[in-house]
Amino acid sequence: MPGYCSPPTRSGCGWQSSTRSAPTVTRGADGADGAELHLGGRVHHVPAAVPPGPVIDTNGAGDAFAAGIVAARARGATWAEAAGYAARVAAAACTHDGMEYPPGLLPLP
């Protein structure tokens, strides 16, 4: 499972920045600029996704990103694929007030 750090740092987040196979995803409040996937000693930029509608409320976008990574990895996605999916889930989470997703809002895998 990935680690999530806020605020982001170049050195990662303690034990999560070690040589373990799980990456560290960082951005915190700057998530609208995308995320950084720290994996295998390299940093990969994950672009922010375009929301499927007007941005209403960004509360919970980071939690939605984390949930998207977990869901995608559970389906067998690579870390990079999971991070891309997570960005789309986070973008969708910003298009309505509150944390309940209307039917059909979440992106397909």
Q: Could you walk me through the main structural features you see in this protein, from its secondary elements to its overall organization?
A:
It is globular, with a radius of gyration of 13 Å. The chain is built from 2 helices and 4 strands. 33% of the residues are buried. With 109 residues, the chain is α+β, with helices and mostly antiparallel strands. Helix content is 27%, strand content 15%.
SSE layout and pairings?
Layout (H helix, E strand, L loop, with lengths): L2 E3 L18 E3 L8 E5 L2 E5 L14 H14 L4 H15 L16
Parallel strand pairs: 1-2
Antiparallel strand pairs: 2-3, 3-4
Helix pairs in contact: 1-2
Give the structure's gist in a few sentences.
It is built from two helices and four strands. The chain has a four-stranded mixed beta sheet, covered by helices on one side.
Number of helices: 2
Averaged pLDDT, please? 75
Distance between the termini: 18 Å
Multimerization state: single chain
Structural class: alpha+beta
* Cα radius of gyration in angstroms: 13 Å
Strand order of the largest sheet: 1-2-3-4
* Strand coverage percent: 5-15%
**Biggest sheet overview:** 4 strands, mixed
Number of β-strand runs:
4
Low-confidence stretches: 1-19
H/E series, N to C? EEEEHH
Helix coverage percent: 25-40%
* Global shape: globular
Identify the notable features of this structure and list them briefly.
single chain; 109 residues
